[in-house]
Amino acid sequence: MGKGILYEMRKLSEISPDPNQPRRNIDKDKIEEMAKSIKTEGVINAIEIDENNVIVTGETRWRAAQVAGLEMIPCKVISIEGRDRFRRQVIENVCNNTMNPIDTAKALEKLLEKYSTSSPGELVRDPHHSGEYHSQGIKELAEEIGKGKSFISEHLDLLKMTKPIQEMIKAGTPRSISRSVNKIPDEHKVKFQEKIANNEFKSRDIAVGVASLIAKNPDNVDKILEIDFSNKSMKEAQDAITDEIGESFDISQTLDNGEKMIDVMELLLIRLNEMLGKNKKGDIPSFFSDYLTNAITLTISNLQNWLSEKETTTLKPFSQKSSQITIDGEVAE
């Protein structure tokens, strides 16, 4: 970063966004929501700008301040350029979850250029491993932005998806759909993605189940991909596969426990954050808000215990009579 840091108020009209920042799409709903809080509390955290009044971080706050009718905004003037500037912008967007997965993937790919070899697109490898997951670039970048290696590698996988699938992910389809595509042999990935893009699978579980089945039965991949799964339930999809290849399969059994757990948690987190974004505090009764807060506290405690291989606590169903949840005999605050 630069030699000096200055804090001062600047006119909104004098400031401009950075055309090279990693986030390519602006969430208008988020700006409207932030504008409401700015009208009440003002801009709590200063935005960062360079000596030319170009935004380094805080574009959403700047846009929301305009919507809120402000003329001035608190700024931190910093000197930062090149890759350091871009990395700072990526970190802010990743931490605040303000970039869609495809923009995130492209930004990570750009940051990885630092670790490229002389061959375009090729990363330096960890000498002890050969897989992409163990690339030194991924390892080092994960340390740079404070994320796990799986976060980097899973996002990079999205750039291998076809454009229609990438557009679906931009629009909100969970990025974990790429895991089902990765189960398919390379020469059949495009056709499987066409089925997903055409909404041929009634649910993501069916898509993942079919992909898992293909992975375990590579000799039958052509026959399975010839099936039209449109509007088919899980059982109907199973029956269609059985009729086509002459063997009986239970698609749901092809999903391993890890896949089921990841899918359930990801969908739950997505729905919860969607609801928090679309509803005001007053839209949810206070007694349920207390229950929700305590339930999340218990879930965090359970996750920590689970990671430490300790015993977890069962979450009791919601009851208006008691919104308190106990953890190890104590009421969760």
Task: Identify the notable features of this structure and list them briefly.
7% strand; globular; two-stranded antiparallel sheet; alpha+beta; 6 strands; single chain; four-stranded mixed β-sheet; 4 domains; Conserved hypothetical protein from pyrococcus furiosus pfu- 392566-001, ParB domain; 333 residues
Give a nutshell description of this structure.
With 333 residues, this protein is α+β, with helices and mostly antiparallel strands.
Describe the protein in words.
With 333 residues, the chain is an alpha+beta fold. It folds into four domains: 6-80, Conserved hypothetical protein from pyrococcus furiosus pfu- 392566-001, ParB domain (Alpha-Beta Complex); 100-158, no CATH class; 173-254, no CATH class; 279-331, no CATH class. The protein has helices at 28-41, 59-67, 82-96, 101-111, 136-145, 149-158, 163-170, 177-182, 189-197, 204-216, 221-225, 234-245, 257-278, 286-307; strands at 6-11, 47-49, 55-57, 72-77, 326-327, 330-331. It is globular and about 75 Å long. The two termini are 40 Å apart. The strands form two sheets. It has a four-stranded mixed sheet. Strands 5-6 form a two-stranded antiparallel sheet. Helices cover 50% and strands 7% of the residues.
Write the layout of secondary structure elements.
Layout: E1 6-11, H1 28-41, E2 47-49, E3 55-57, H2 59-67, E4 72-77, H3 82-96, H4 101-111, H5 136-145, H6 149-158, H7 163-170, H8 177-182, H9 189-197, H10 204-216, H11 221-225, H12 234-245, H13 257-278, H14 286-307, E5 326-327, E6 330-331
Parallel strand pairs: 2-4
Antiparallel strand pairs: 1-4, 2-3, 5-6
Helix pairs in contact: 1-2, 3-4, 4-6, 5-6
